[in-house]
Structure prediction request, 728 residues.
Amino acid sequence: MKEFFNLEDSRWKPSYLILAIFLSFLFSISLRYIWVEQFQNVESFKWLGQLMINTNDGYYFAEGARDIISGTHQKLDSSPIHQPLSQLTAILAQLLPFSFETIILWLPAVMGSLLVVPLILIGQTLRQPLMGLIGALLGSITWSYYNRTMVGYYDTDMLTVVLPTFTLWGILLNIREKENRFLLLPPIFLSLNLFWYPQSLSLNLALTGVTFLYTLIWERKEIFNYKLLTFLFLASMPIEIYWKFLIFALLFGVIFYYENRKHYQEEKPEDDGDEVVILKKSKKEVDIHLDKFVLVLFAISGIALIASGAFNDIIQKLQSYVFRTDSYAVKDEIELHFYNVVKTVREASAIPFETFANRISGHIVTFWISTLGVILMVIRWKELLIALPMVGLGYLAYHSGLRFTVYAVPIYALGLGYLIIVVIKDFKSPIFRYAFAVILTTLAIYPNYKHIENYRVPVVFNKNEVAVLDELKYIAKREDYVLAWWDYGYPIRFYSDVKTLVDGGQHSGSINFPVSWSLMRPPLASAYMARLAVEYREMERFQIAEMMKDRNITEPDEFLEKVSKGEIELPKKTREVYYYLPLRMLNILPTVGLFSQIDLKTGNQVIKPFFYQTNSFKDNGRYIDMGNGIVFDKVKATIRIGKIERPIESFYITKYDRDGKFRVVRLQSRAGANLSIIFMQSYGKMLLVDNYLLNSTYFRLFILETAPKDLFEPVIMTPIAKVYRLKI
Prediction:
């Protein structure tokens, strides 16, 4: 075991390397089991006897896997049957003796824990394997990386850091060893990364670009590096992965042929035959010939990469995450402005520095210590400059969204591992040396462990909500649409096997507008907009501008007014439309409204409704204290908001009686007061809203159940979620 703890430049033998990988992988899985242990007895979190997943996007890939297995797929159903994660899941579901629900629950934890492999291999390559082991133990469970690879977080994130880290290891291995047997490793991992997660193109280009700069600065005369860059250039091209692998095989075969031909010419003994004498070349002549051949391949691959359009994606990414604007225009014959959805996505927003540091290292102290370790590590091994794009992408999170922090995690974990090695290396007592290493590593791991212990993320939908969607599956047809906010799009499609207008991947301002309008406007306006939206979606013309052009209307206000009054000619009905209205939507109602409360000519918000909800209120006899300085006077029928006192138009009491029947009692006070209180007795909630919200379709259908019978038919009515069928 002495070799296992050797701090000098050395490598572990394979048995120790495998043991280190196994132990760190087991450690990573074990900590991820904490979430399962916390919720395994919560029956409301289970479906079909298994815990459900805890990320909305997971249902997108689960839908694709389900359809691959069943062999069913409809036009415009948005099912991701061509997504690698869906395909992998379908294969595993057919090969493994586990249920589909178990596979999608545990797959992110298993795949995400594979990060320990490249981290330990990087340490092995740099002849400091103990550094790699420490980095693996910390990096695999660090705050942000754990969040996106925990049990139940079924998403592509399970490999979006693993594959770039494998790519980094392959590049470092080739630069240090310069052996053809390792040449295909980095381009294969880079290609797999681009195949698995196409949005990683910018990172792949950055890793390739920094490798190129490293070669120009430090090893520009090393011909092997140009062979490596040739493969990296080809791997970065946005072409199908099978074409890449075919090119890799052919190119590697050509290089192998030339190099073996060179050795043949060097080692063939002299012969009296004229033909052999003519073919014989000196070693220098052959090397020059081979070098020119490699440089030609390098130049051709570089030109091909530029011509492939690979760099076009970078501009789009910058516009989406860095240069955000309040609204944007869909330019056509009619120019309309819609709300920018990026402003409502938390993971695309700037974060406080402490959160940034915690997500990368688990604690702000560990972050700064790891930063020093990264600097010292790069000074020790200049080739680690190639890892800086991952650090840079992680730092982008400080301005453009917390999701990026995961990319810096493995490099910072290695940095901490290296600093610990530096600190303990000169200790004379081996026992004290390694005890101190264990203590320092444990101190770094502990805040991440506490985060894991406290990170009790609920499942996306609870059992009762899923039961509603499962029931709907037997009512609606696969060609029918369910209208709901985009947060619920993926789970609705997975459990009900229907179509949706918006989801986690399709929620730009222009397509959110009709859905937001249908939920937030009165029932007549909602019904007409919903029918328009669904039929135009089936015509693949799902844009307000298209609806306007078909009716020769150029002013958006005129068009929306006609929709509100039901004066628009509707397209022929081709399928049913169902409204899915969950209780949980109350929490995001202000955000839902933002997308349709704007002037389409300017993008400015023109409607600012009043909405307040509370679960903490106190009845003091005459007064009901609703918190935050809001008090209702039952005698005067007024509401005091701070120092302002206003009359109440109506006071509603809603409840479910002992037979489960919904009841509404309305107490009217002053007509036209424009503020009403709704006491949702069965939910322990109290709402204060203006008439805009009170008359909205969500309130009329879910909160009050006063849907116009000529427009909406109740289909599934439960306290947790309600489904209506559109009748027009």
User: Anything to note?
Assistant: The two ends are 77 Å apart (CA to CA). Confidence is low (pLDDT under 50) at residues 324-332.
